[in-house]
């Protein structure tokens, strides 16, 4: 069965996300940054309400990588869904994010991510990204122990 154009575009984004995931696990800041548009606006789960611009967000990724231990980062994607048309798309997934401590033990948590993509000069780039962790409204505590269902 032949794929439709939206399915082809969604597959291109899935391929970019697979490369991005590998780059994060390798702590390769240049490859991590390659999916972002120069005008990226991110609502990350840590440090600030928002990050604007590629250089600012790239510096944030460098900071994050410094907290992932000496081994590879943990960055696993589950339940990825991508919707695309000719020049706009979005993806959302659950992400297990963390690192390995000095004892070799994995430490991390699951969080949510949504990315808005725009085709710029023939290439899919993220123009907006949002990471979040659920929290308990009564205790105001982040719910780091949740697992995908």
Describe the structure.
The protein is an alpha+beta fold and 149 residues long. 26% of the residues lie in helices and 40% in strands. The protein is built from three helices and six strands; from the N terminus they run ααββαββββ. A six-stranded mixed sheet has the order 2-1-6-5-4-3, with helices on one face. A hairpin with a 5-residue loop joins strand 4 and strand 5. The longest helix is centred in the N-terminal third of the chain and has 21 residues. The model has no long low-confidence stretch (mean pLDDT 90).
List keywords for this structure.
6 strands, alpha+beta, globular, 26% helix, 3 helices, 149 residues, six-stranded mixed beta sheet
How would you summarize what this structure contains?
The chain is of the alpha+beta class. It has 3 helices and 6 strands. A hairpin with a 7-residue loop joins strand 1 and strand 2.
Low-confidence stretches: none
User: Helix count?
Assistant: 3
Secondary structural class? alpha+beta
* Biggest sheet: strand arrangement: 2-1-6-5-4-3
C-alpha end-to-end distance: 31 Å
**How many E strands?**
6
The whole-number mean of residue pLDDT values reads 90
Percent helix among the residues? 25-40%
Give the C-alpha Rg: 16 Å
Assess the beta-strand content as a share of residues: 35-45%
State the major sheet.
6 strands, mixed
């Amino acid at each position: 069965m032949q794929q439709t154009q939206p399915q082809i575009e969604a597959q291109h984004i899935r391929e970019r996300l697979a490369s991005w995931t590998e780059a994060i696990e390798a702590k390769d800041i240049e490859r991590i940054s390659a999916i972002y548009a120069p005008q990226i606006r991110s609502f990350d789960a840590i440090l600030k309400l928002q990050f604007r611009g590629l250089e600012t967000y790239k510096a944030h990724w460098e900071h994050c990588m410094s907290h992932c231990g000496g081994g590879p980062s943990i960055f696993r994607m589950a339940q990825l869904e991508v919707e695309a048309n000719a020049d706009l798309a979005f993806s959302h997934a659950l992400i297990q994010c963390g690192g390995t401590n000095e004892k070799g033990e994995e430490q991390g948590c699951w969080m949510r991510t949504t990315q808005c993509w725009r085709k710029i000069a023939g290439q899919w780039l993220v123009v907006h990204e949002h990471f979040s962790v659920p929290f308990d409204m009564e205790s105001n505590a982040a719910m780091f122990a949740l697992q995908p269902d």
